[in-house]
Amino acid sequence: MKKYTALRSKELAEAIKQRDNLCEEAVKHIDTCFSLSLFEWRNLTDKQIETLKANNNHADNWDNVLVTNTFDECIVRNSTFHGMVRIADLEYKTVEINGLIYTTGIYGCNIHSCDIGSNVVLNNIGRLENYVVGNESVICNVFEISTTSGATFGCGIKSNGTIDGIKAMNEGGLRQFIPFADILPADAYLMCKYIGNKSLKDSLIKITRNSYCPLPTFGTINEHSLIFNTNSITNTLIGTCCRIENATKIANSTIKSSCDEPTCIGEGSIIKDTIVGKGCNVLENSIVQKDVLGTNVTIEHGARVINSMVSDNSTIACCEVQNSMVFPSHQQHHNNSFLIASTILGQSNIAAGATIGSNHNSRTNEGEIFAGRGFWPGLCTSFKHPSKFASFVLVAKGDYQHELNIPLPFSLVNNNLHANELEIMPAYLWMYNMYALERNNYKFQHRDKRVEKLQNIEQQVFAPDTIEEIIRAMELLELWTGKAWTTRESKSLLPDETRKKGREILTNNNIERLDVFADRVENSRRKVRIIKPREAYRAYYEMLMYYAAKNILKYIGQNTEVLPNLDNLATGGTREKKWINLGGQLVTETDFQEICEDIVSGELSTWGEIHNRYDELWDEYPFKKTQHSYAVICHLKGGDYLSQDSWNQVFKEFFQIQEKIYSRVRASRQKDFDNPYHQMTYNSFDEMNANLGTIDTDPLINLVQLQTSDYKEILVKLKILSNQ
User: Cβ(422)–Cβ(440) under 8 Å?
Assistant: First the structure.
């Protein structure tokens, strides 16, 4: 008997040489192949060949069928073997899946040039060609599993070196990113958004090319994977513990999966030219074509996602997404929802009937929608390209026939057809739906099921990006209010004087109210009315104070030195005013520019090095956010430094705001219990309470109440509040 220890092919040997330069998924691919190549393979004995023939097995050359010393030929039946086929340890065992018993072995399969791992179940496979099947995998009732030459497994560098990018953010195709197995949402955004920086663009292409190594022309199905009743799988890498059941087609893709974060591909789904992250679900006749899905993404109920990046912890169902860049924690559950040529910065919720980006307003299809975190268009809203929205903007139901630029975060936008005006109520969520605002702070963390958190994500509603938007919004309210006064009084003031007058009006309750209108918000001649500007201005102030004092208190709790040493946070009156959202991670503009410069100079020459830089900045982020909080307090109080007495006053003011938050959260939820129209579907209060619970058992309200008590305890210990 001959023994074989040679590698499977020259391609595998070459790939192993390049192992250190490969991405994570490529390394796993190589390691799976290499581990099987280390078995001591031998030829079949004459007796084993006779038994195999008796069990209706056929081979074009039995010398090319290699096995190990642990091989039970009796559990190989009705199968054919072509080319070199190597079968690792195979012994009789049973496996139970969904209440059904499967016996290890190879039954009714047509196998071409494959390596088969230990103790697999292969049953009724029409064609299995150029694949490495991992240990203890179960594959049943599949028409075809094959790999052909030129497979890219969903990556954007073809075997001939040409680029096949994903055209996100814009239907025109000039914005695009090059997918690769380890790509993060931050990488895709970097490649798509900053195409105006030619040096950066060229450097990123070069880095991606240099990290590319042609993989062997055979695919892998890693260990413990389950594949049932599927039509076709071609040119695809399948990760560990992946489950594919009743899928229609999977082609030229990488399906990441692990035992801790298994991926599931379900009924009728089609996946083509796509990188699928760990812990994803593609279910129920969904189509995913030319995309990258982050970790813990669900595509279901017949959704169609094409030419897009869908980032971590997102769900898309019953709808269409094309040419879009979607950041983490995006939710889009309902039918007739469209999201085309859009960039949504995460934590968003798209309601039923929204047509976002389906109506272009130019001669070609280069229009885009850009929305900050927390974007929430209501039922049956429609927008024109191009439009831009600040963070946590809620848009009321309506047909918005003009391009919009909404710079006021946390606002409610309404199309008042009766008055023929666009209405904006700034800080609406803070004033009238505190329950929803606080719920957002917790639900994003609760829904983050990722075990391996590769993409860093800021999940708090109040963070440096939204805070800077609030500061700019307050300046706009001052300017617009000052203009309203000068128009009424027929005065002429310089811009700074106009803002000063507006600030005086907004902070003085004794001054009569004005009709305040916004400039450059809607591309039309009609008026844009600001609703309740004075109340909104005060609400914005409270939001700034809440964010800043909360972060400072957290810093105090993590350090033994407290109030007397807060000056180490002082920035001398300077404040980081521009923060970049990189796929969910916030970085200062200074740090971002340094990343870009280091990429262009070659200091960051691989994607691994770029990812390490992201992580370094993420480690620094809590302190930088605390410094930013100090600077925000100084901005509000009008100085560069604060004394201990000033901090005492700040924290007292913070606690008053915290108590207001608790009361508003409770009041927001109380409306649902008190609303007679909400009650009318129940026969009794007992039935309603059984369904809704009571206001006192609401988990979010109890959480905010506990948080308020904890803050008071801290402030009592700091002798800022009395224990009354």
Answer: no
Q: Give per-residue pLDDT as tens, 85-139.
A: 999 999 999 888 778 888 999 999 999 999 999 999 999 999 999 999 999 999 9
Q: Where are the alpha helices (DSSP H) in 558-606?
A: 589-601
With cut-offs at 50, 70 and 90, classify the pLDDT of residue 3: very low
List of residues 6+ apart from 255 with CB closer than 8 A: 236, 237, 238, 239, 242, 244, 263, 265, 271, 276
Cis peptide upstream of residue 386 (ω within 30 degrees of 0): yes
* Alpha-carbon span 496 to 510, nearest angstrom: 22
Q: In what order do the strands lie in the sheet with 528-530?
A: 376-377, 394-395, 412-416, 421-425, 528-530
Q: Please tell me the distance from the alpha carbon of residue 701 to that of residue 442, in angstroms, as a whole number.
A: 12
- Secondary element (H or E) of residue 244: strand 243-245
- The 3-state DSSP class for residue 346 equals coil
Q: Where are the alpha helices (DSSP H) in 360-463?
A: 428-432, 434-446
Report the sign of the C-alpha dihedral through residues 257, 260, 261, 267, in that order: positive
Instruction: Classify residue 444 as left (phi > 0), alpha (psi -120 to 50) or beta.
Output: alpha
Identify each DSSP E strand in 118-205 by its residue range.
Answer: 121-129, 131-133, 138-146
Whether 318 has a pLDDT exceeding 80, the answer reads: yes
3-state secondary structure of 560: coil
The pair of three-digit structure tokens given for residue 510, joined into one six-digit string: 């004794």
Residues with Cβ within 8 Å of 18's Cβ and at least 6 positions away in sequence, in order, are: 213
- In the chain, DSSP finds a helix count (H) and a strand count (E) of 16, 43
